[in-house]
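Recap from last week: sequence in, structure out.
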Amino acid sequence: MKRATNFIFGFAIGGVIGATISLLLTPSSGDELRTQLQTRVQAIQQDVKAVTEARRAELEDQLAALRKPG
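Predicted structure tokens:
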């Protein structure tokens, strides 16, 4: 039981130390980081939308070709 308690205590201390170090070494503030993430997410959403629209148009063309008689 003591080994488990020591492990949990060490894990918690390591987490606190890791979080502190990451905050000190982060190159930008929280607001800047959120803005950057939001910009990247929006860019990815636009890319996905463009790709899906292109694929949809391609599939609609194929469907129209299959529906043509003859």
